[in-house]
Write a structure and sequence with these properties.
The chain is mostly helical and 216 residues long. The protein contains 6 helices and no strands.
């Protein structure tokens, strides 16, 4: 560098370009690091959301098992009573003529609304979405049947309902079938999501037979 350049405080052009390039490179590195950190945070949030969904599926499985057992018990009690030539008694239906499970969807709804599903594996999202689609159909069935029962109860009382054992038996068996179907779906969904190598939960033999007959 010449004495004249030093005195004027100027720098050669190549130094100015080099300094600008270093600044730009530093900015790019900083942006890349920030983006990598944000991507890592999103993946962690997606993993956390998936764990809550798994817990929710397990909770729903327990709720469905309780309803399935109730409906299976009703059908068995009805068979026994009717086989003796006796009529049905409203007292047999302690928790209602039907008692659908009150399924929970908070975790999956939250995962969708917060965008966590965008960072989940597509196959997992598809599998879980199908399971929750079955939940929606089950809820719709519950609302439809409840409305029908309320109308019958309002018009003729409980005796009118129990005086139609065929219709009541058919209604309950429809719920039982749907609950067996739900349990199979939940089991398959959890199995597809499992990465721990845990053994699959065995399907109830009665449910398996009912579903196989229904698809036969």
């Amino acid at each position: 560098m010449s004495v004249e350049a030093k005195e004027k405080g100027t720098f050669p052009l190549r130094l100015v370009v080099l300094e600008a390039a270093l600044v730009a490179f530093g900015v790019v590195l900083a942006l890349a690091a920030t983006e990598a950190w944000e991507a890592s945070e999103r993946r962690q949030q997606a993993d956390d959301a998936l764990l809550t969904v798994v817990a929710e599926l397990e909770e729903n499985r327990g709720l469905v098992v309780a309803s399935r057992d109730y409906h299976a018990g009703l059908m068995e009690g009805m068979r026994t009573t009717l086989s003796t030539g006796s009529g049905l008694n409203p007292g047999m239906f302690g928790d209602g003529f039907v008692n659908p499970a009150d399924l929970v969807t908070v975790a999956w709804d939250a995962a969708n609304s917060t965008g966590a599903t965008a960072d989940m594996d597509y196959a997992t999202v598809l599998t879980v979405s199908r399971a929750y689609g079955h939940f929606d159909a089950y809820r719709l069935q519950g609302r439809t049947v409840s409305d029908l029962l309320y109308r019958q109860l309002f018009e003729g009382g409980t005796q009118e309902v129990v005086d139609n054992p065929q219709g009541l038996f058919s209604m309950i068996s429809t719920f039982l079938y749907r609950e067996c179907e739900l349990l199979r779906t939940i089991g398959q969904t959890l199995g597809a999501m499992d990465t721990t190598g845990a053994p699959a939960v065995e399907e109830d033999p009665g449910c398996a037979q009912m579903l196989d007959r229904g698809r036969g």
